[in-house]
Design brief:
By secondary structure, the protein is of the alpha+beta class. The chain contains four helices and ten strands; from the N terminus they run H-H-E-E-E-E-E-H-H-E-E-E-E-E. The protein has a ten-stranded antiparallel sheet. The longest helix has 34 residues. The termini are far apart. The mean pLDDT is 87.
Amino acid sequence: MRWDDLFEDLDARLSHARRLERDAEVADRRDDDVASVDLLARLLATDGELSLQLLDGSWVEGRVRAAGPGWVLLSAGSPVRRQVLVPTAAVCAVRGLSAASLPPGAVVARRSLLLALRALAAAGEGVLVRTRAGDVRGRLARVGADHVDVLVRAGVDQSVVTVPFASLLNVTESS
């Protein structure tokens, strides 16, 4: 009889060890899943208002309209809604971000900041370019690999202000 008790105890210990192993594996997988989620996936899953704090301490609020690697487009402001393109490199903090994630599809994964800025340049619309040092109002003239040229009009004169992506806070529709 004592052997029966001994083997039952041994089985119980093994069963308990297996449960602990399984629980640890589940926890590791959950941590791995969370660790693989990037900001883009969470931005794409956010349905509602969110706030972005930028490198200069200012906040931009709005609804996510589009996003790609390195940028997010918000519809911001009230009562007039304006589109605001924000490089994610200019974001210090986010309020209202979904805990869920939505992995980007193949098309979204290819929509880089460079392509988003080139689309704005091709549209030829007036924009307000906010940088760490100040604002530039004009239209995007050309987009290089790491900078954008803003065509600025001052009366009949025109000049070009080149803004490196590293100093870009956001690009907003200009009225």
